[in-house]
Each structure stands twice: as C-alpha cells, then as structure tokens.
Write a structure and sequence with these properties.
279 residues, alpha/beta, Rossmann fold, seven-stranded mixed β-sheet, 9 strands, binds zinc ion
C-alpha cells in the first residue's frame, strides 16, 4: 500500500495503531508498558517449521519479526511468502522500480532475523481480492513449505488490542482471511486440483495458525531478548521508512517495535508479540 510522507502509513504504522498505545511515562518519569494482561504462551514445542504469509514486504517486520528472531534462535526453520512485491508502497517511486527495491530490502530484513527462504508472489499490491485465486496460491505455498505453524497478519477490520482500533486495509483483510482458508485448502486434495497435478501433495501438518495484530489476541510470545534484532530487521526497509516519515529510520523502527511488543519506548521492558490463534 501507499506510503505517504507525513500521512497514514501501511502496514500498521505507529499512527494507525496508536490506539493500542505504546509505552507511556509514569509520574516518576519511568517507562511503563501498555496495560495488557498476560496471555498464555503460544505453544511451539511441536513446531519445527514456521511459514509466515503476509501481503506486503515489511508486513512481517511490523510485529512478527521479534517472534521470528526468537524462533530462528531456537533452531526453528522460518520462511516467508508474501503475496505482493509491495510495488504500490512508496510515494513518488514508480512501481517498476519499487518492486525491485522492496524485494531487496525484504531480503536484507530476512537475513537479520535468520529467515533464509523468501518468496514474493505477483498479486497486485493495493487491490488484493479475497477469493479462490489468492487462496490457491497461499495453499500452494503451504504445500511447498509444509509448516507446522502458519503466521499471518491481522485479517480483522480493525487493529488490536481490543475493540475500537484503527481501520485495517483491504489487502490485509483479504490476505489474512485467505490464509485461514488456505490452510484448510492445503490439506484437501480435491480443492485446487491443479496443485495436485503439479505434484504438490496435500499437507495437513499445520497445527495452528497465529494472527498477529488482532484485536482478539489469545496467546503471546515473549520476545524480550530479541527486541534489538527486531529493530535491526525493520531498519532494513530504509527507503520505505524514509518515504513514510521525516523521523530518522532508527527512531521509526524502535517506535514500531516498542508499540508492537509493549516493551516500553526505550525497549527496556518485557516485550511480547500477541497472536490470535486458530486451529
Ligand atoms: Zn501491509
């Protein structure tokens, strides 16, 4: 989606997710984290491979990246498949140039958190449509990578936590809903039958699907030890962030990680990434 300097950003920028409230200072000048109750830990003992499915380059870095850094540090195999090249994402930059730049920035970002497999599909940025074409390509990705945990970004109308958050974009809603359906499609040999003909056998090994940024979070992943890596990963989207705001890229990256993990504005607190879990 389009990044407009000084304007609303996509994906969930600090401004758009402001309702969630980043850290705030208490009366003593110290930093407190948002008032969110602890949730049960996301189970990962039975997870060897993780597949992150998202709409755009940089979507994984808006919240999920810290959890990915933890999982790869634990030896789990984490891969990304993005539905678009994010070619409509930078104001003033032609989509033909933007798609290549954004792919490079995403690749660099992946390297920081230990993700070695990145695929960018060719669905059109900004006008993703919920339907069988997108479901098919996502189901194909699930069959190719055979994950035990699928991770995606918020498919609901607003951003979490809780009700009343900022409106989510059409691409994210379409992508997230298709992911939830595609996990089932991936296990059914008689849905998207051309996949079977192409040698992609059904995969029923997805144990759960975890949705980051949902207003209905059910589980969390403690990422306190991985906040710096998450900042470094988001920072690799340099050109995108430069177009988004006049604030220094480092500042933007730290603010996003603070907001999405609740670790406090100086990132000195405990951080957790929250997910709504299905399956
Ligand atoms: Zn996005």
């Amino acid at each position: 989606m389009l990044a407009r300097p000084g304007g609303p950003a996509d994906p969930p920028s600090v401004a758009r997710r402001g309702r969630a409230g980043p850290a705030r200072r208490d009366d003593d000048g110290g930093v407190t984290t948002p008032e969110q109750p602890d949730l049960p830990d996301l189970p990962t003992d039975d997870v060897e491979r993780v597949l992150v499915l998202a709409a755009h380059p940089d979507d994984p870095e808006y919240g999920v990246g810290a959890a990915v850094a933890r999982w790869t540090s634990e030896g789990r195999d984490v891969r990304y498949v993005l539905a678009t090249h994010g070619e409509a994402g930078i104001a003033g930059l032609d989509p033909a140039e933007s798609r290549e730049l954004r792919a490079r920035e995403q690749q660099a970002s992946c390297a920081v958190v230990g993700v070695t497999s990145l695929e960018l599909l060719d669905h059109p940025d900004g006008v993703l449509v919920e339907g069988p074409a997108l479901r098919r390509d996502l189901a194909a990705a699930v069959r190719r990578h055979r994950p035990h945990l699928v991770v995606t970004l918020n498919h609901r109308e607003t951003w979490g936590p809780g009700p009343g958050g900022a409106w989510n974009t059409a691409d994210h809603r379409a992508l997230g809903r298709c992911v939830l359906d595609a996990v089932a499609d991936a296990g059914n040999a008689w849905v998207h039958r051309d996949l079977l003909a192409a040698g992609l056998e059904p995969w029923q090994g997805v144990r759960r699907t975890a949705v980051a940024g949902s207003p209905a979070a059910t589980h969390q992943v403690d990422v306190t030890a991985h906040l710096g890596t998450a900042v470094a990963s988001l920072r690799e989207h340099r050109r995108y962030l430069e177009a988004l705001s006049d604030r220094p890229v480092e500042e933007q990256a730290r603010a996003v990680v603070a907001l999405t993990t609740g670790a406090g504005e100086d990132l000195s607190g405990r951080g957790a990434v929250r997910f709504e879990v299905f399956g």
